[in-house]
Structure formats: structure tokens, C-alpha cells
Automatic annotation (TrEMBL):
CDD domains: Thr-synth_2 (cd01560). This is Threonine synthase. It comes from Marinomonas mediterranea (strain ATCC 700492 / JCM 21426 / NBRC 103028 / MMB-1). The keyword Transcription does not apply. It is an enzyme of class 4 (lyase). The modification N6-(pyridoxal phosphate)lysine is found at residue 112. Belongs to the threonine synthase family. Signal peptide: none annotated. Keywords: Amino-acid biosynthesis, Lyase, Pyridoxal phosphate, Threonine biosynthesis. The lineage of its organism: Bacteria, Pseudomonadati, Pseudomonadota, Gammaproteobacteria, Oceanospirillales. Its EC number is 4.2.3.1.
């Protein structure tokens, strides 16, 4: 399988190169040159597979040629061995034909574990084969940092540096990162805000000379391997409610458009998906784009669903590529127009987007109402992101005979503020995290200075 850039200027690369590169050197994002597609009969024949077996079937065409089958199977088994439910991604029924797909059964209690548990292992394997090392640098305001650290901690060929804003992440989120003590894990608390941290990472990627020859790798959702791993649970959940013999719909709490883009790919690969619902909080650029063709950037709102607090969704470019007939020159033009302040798509591109997605936006008050109502009706406690997903599902659902699956992206214990504002009691930590508040922590506090941060990294690789 070859991968091409959405901006059409960078060379096509193999899976291993794309895995280590992250962003393409023309500023675009990598996507497969062609997608495998499956008939109803083929998909139906997967119904009795375990999650791990299904994961192998679905991801194999994307990695074939780079990773031997037995090694890939072992990596998949290891990646999902730390999940605390045997079906890995269990489903819970919350109403008639209405389901919640629990994607928070991994080590850090958010769906990002699905991809990052595998990503660390894939990177380590490719680096070992090539005799290379990679330095991971990332900024986090919460979930990504802990999931990335958990995914990379055992990698022999990776050093991981995660920047978080000092005293501006919740204690659960900080401790999920800082209590992982390994030789290759470095937590840096920067005396600044999240944008300062992200700015430092961006600058470091653009000029890597401070690394004295080492290379930087990306673990955010621009990395193709993350999208790939997320395709699997669309198939597993759909199969469990009767697909491919019937259609299914999905609602997805959306930030950077990575998770729901995986659903779009599942549909391209033959899964009969009726609706894909983009659920946003008040940071609603995607909802505005889909509903009104308005892609203008607005200032960032801090909400009760912080993992969806984004101004611009980076993975949306992957969809726009398809919406413009996979013409990289058109995407190049479009990005230039965006930077000059034009914020609309042409009619055919907008129509393409509308044909594939529905959308809905939920504010903080609405989020708390959903958490409270669902809890009082069913005793099931939603996290704020999932609550937004479920509300959007109910508002956009066109055909009630089609099962509607909402992706539950995090465990409610991670977001006590929203749960308590909804008048519910925050649940206790799951078994494997019971002693989180007693564990030893390790992190360094640095000034809001890129020179200091880069020196810190250079001294430790
Ligand atoms: C990252 C995250 C999201 C958003 O996912 P995208 O792939 O960026 O759209 C939603 N919910 C939770 C809990 C997350 O951690």
C-alpha cells in the first residue's frame, strides 16, 4: 500500500515511512492511495471473529509489505491485552435501537488508547528494523498525553517528551502522565498555557537542528496509523447489531475529526452506514461547515468537554481531499484561500460533505441535562463528550429502524466537574487506577521558553 499527500506535492510513501513522518513535507496529510473494499458476504463472514482477529483482517492491507503477519498479530494482541473488558469495545443499550459503544476500557480510560497502544508498538518495530531512533514530542491539555505515554513507555527506540501547561490540567489527567516512570518518558510542565506548549512543539518540528541529527515523530491524529486503528471498532460494533444485513448509524463526539473520519473510511470499505453524525460542543466549526458552509475560525471556548475544544479540525483536510475529487492542487489552493480569509467551500464540495455527514452542537447546559436525564432514566453515567454524542444522535436520527451507535470516548471518572454539575456523583476510579493518588510522580517544571525546553530535550536523548 502506498500513501499520498492531500496536497499532492510530497512523494508517495510506504506505511513505515508514513508512520514515522506524521505530516507530509508539503504540509498535507497522508492517506492511502486506494482503499480495500469488501462485499456483504465477506463482512458477514467476520461476525464470529474476536476483536483482535477482526483488527488484523481490517488493518492488514494497510501494513502489508512493511510488517510480517505474525509480528503484526502479536502487536495487536499486546496492544489490547491491557483493556479491562474481554470484548475490548463492549456495547451498552440505552434505548430502543440505541447503543453506546464503550471505547474507554483501555489503560487511560479514553478511546485514544485504541490507536496509541498500537502506534507505540508499530513505531518500535519499524525503528528496530531500520536501526533508527525517534524522539516523540507532543503537547497535551489532557487525554492525548497520557494515552501517548502509555503507548510508548515500553518502546526501546523511542523517547517521549510530553509538554503540559503547569497547573492547568486536572489532577487525574496530570497523574495519569506523571506517575508513569520509565527511562524514556519525560513529562515537562511548562509555565505557560496549552497554546504555548503547542507552539513549542510546532516550532521544534519545523527546525529540528537542536536534536543534533535525531528525528521527531508525531503521535497526534494527523498520524495515519491512528486513523487506521480506529476503523476496526466501526466494523465490530456494526456486526454486533446485525450489519452488514442491515444498515447502522453512528454519532461521534468530534474534535480534530480523526475518529469520525475512520467511520467514513469504514463506509468506503463497504460497511453499510446510513448516517454519520458529527457531534460538537460550542467549538462548532465542523457543525457550521456542514450546516451552513461557514468554516470561519472563532475564538476558543473552554467547555465541560475539553477534549473537543479545538478551533480548527486538522483531519478535515482528509475529507476535503475526497470532496475535491482527490485533487491535491485544489487542496493547495483551498488552504491558501483559507489563510487569506475565504471560509466557504464551493457548492459541489459542500454538497459532498453534506451527503456524508449530519451534525449537531450541544452547549454545556445541554451536556449536563443529558448526563442527568440519562442517569435518572437508566442509571448509566455518561462522560460529557459522550453525552454530546448521544444528544446529537437523538436529534439527527432519521430512521429509527436503523440502529444508532454513539461512540463513548471517555470514562466519566475523568471529568468529575461535568458529572457533578449535572447533579450526579463522580464514580470511583476503576480497579487498575485505584491507587493513582498515592503513586509517585515525576515531572520537570520549566519556564515558558523554547530554548529551555529544547535544551532539556537535547540533554536527554
Ligand atoms: C480526543 C477526544 C475526542 C475527539 O476526537 P477526534 O478524533 O479529535 O475528533 C473526543 N472525546 C474524547 C474524550 C477525546 O479524548
Amino acid at each position: 500500500m502506498k500513501y499520498i499527500s492531500t496536497r499532492g506535492q510530497a512523494p508517495a510513501l510506504s506505511f513505515g515511512d508514513v508512520l514515522l513522518a506524521g505530516l507530509a513535507n508539503d504540509g498535507g496529510l497522508y492517506i492511502p492511495e486506494t482503499l480495500p473494499s469488501y462485499t456483504k458476504e465477506e463482512i458477514a463472514s467476520w461476525a464470529s471473529l474476536s476483536y483482535q482477529e477482526l483488527a488484523f483482517k481490517i488493518m492488514w492491507p494497510f501494513v502489508e509489505g512493511e510488517i510480517p503477519a505474525d509480528d503484526f498479530k502479536r502487536m495487536i494482541d499486546e496492544a489490547y491485552s491491557s483493556f479491562n473488558h474481554t470484548s475490548i469495545a463492549p456495547m451498552v443499550q440505552t434505548g430502543n435501537n440505541e447503543w453506546v459503544l464503550e471505547l474507554f476500557r483501555g489503560p487511560t480510560l479514553a478511546f485514544k488508547d485504541f490507536a496509541l497502544q498500537l502506534l507505540g508498538r508499530l513505531m518500535d518495530f519499524v525503528l528496530e528494523k531500520r536501526g533508527e531512533k525517534l524522539v516523540i514530542m507532543g503537547a497535551t491539555s489532557g487525554d492525548t498525553g497520557s494515552a501517548a505515554i502509555e503507548g510508548c513507555r515500553h518502546s526501546e527506540h523511542l523517547d517521549i517528551f510530553i509538554l503540559h501547561p503547569y497547573q492547568r490540567v486536572s489532577e487525574v489527567q496530570r497523574r495519569q502522565m506523571t506517575t508513569i516512570i520509565d527511562d524514556n518518558v519525560f513529562n515537562i510542565a511548562v509555565k505557560g498555557n496549552f497554546d504555548d506548549c503547542q507552539g513549542m512543539v510546532k516550532t521544534s518540528f519545523a527546525d529540528q537542528s537542536f536534536l543534533k541529527g535525531a528525528k521527531l515523530g508525531a503521535v497526534n491524529s494527523i498520524n495515519w496509523a491512528r486513523i487506521m486503528a480506529q476503523i476496526v471498532y466501526y466494523f465490530s460494533s456494526a456486526l454486533s447489531v446485525g450489519a452488514p444485513h442491515r444498515k447502522v448509524s453512528f454519532s461521534v463526539p468530534t474534535g480534530n475529526f480523526g475518529d469520525i473520519f475512520a467511520g467514513y473510511l469504514a463506509k468506503q470499505m463497504g460497511l453499510p452506514i446510513d448516517q454519520l453524525v458529527v457531534a460538537t460542543n460550542q467549538n462548532d466549526i465542523l457543525h457550521r461547515t456542514i450546516a451552513e458552509n461557514d468554516m470561519s475560525r472563532q475564538s476558543l471556548n473552554v467547555t465541560l468537554s475539553p477534549s473537543m475544544d479545538i478551533m480548527v479540525s486538522s483531519n478535515f483536510e482528509r475529507l476535503l481531499f475526497d470532496a475535491h475529487g482527490r485533487d491535491g492542487d485544489k487542496i493547495n489552493d483551498l488552504m491558501q484561500r483559507f489563510n487569506q480569509g475565504d471560509v466557504t467551500l464551493d457548492d459541489s464540495a459542500w454538497q459532498f460533505v453534506k451527503d456524508n455527514f449530519d451534525s449537531y452542537k450541544v452547549d454545556d447546559e445541554g451536556t449536563c441535562d443529558v448526563i442527568a436525564n440519562v442517569f435518572s432514566e437508566t442509571q448509566y453515567l455518561l462522560d460529557p463528550h459522550t453525552a454530546i454524542g448521544l444528544e446529537a444522535a437523538r436529534k439527527c436520527w432519521k430512521d429509527k429502524s436503523v440502529p444508532m451507535i454513539t461512540l463513548a470516548t471517555a470514562h466519566p471518572v475523568k471529568f468529575p466537574e461535568a458529572v457533578e454539575k449535572a447533579g450526579c456523583e463522580s464514580p470511583s476510579l476503576p480497579e487498575h487506577m485505584k491507587d493513582l493518588f498515592e503513586r509517585e510522580e515525576s515531572y520537570d517544571v520549566l519556564d515558558n521558553s523554547i530554548a529551555d525546553v529544547q535544551q532539556f530535550v537535547a540533554d536527554r536523548i
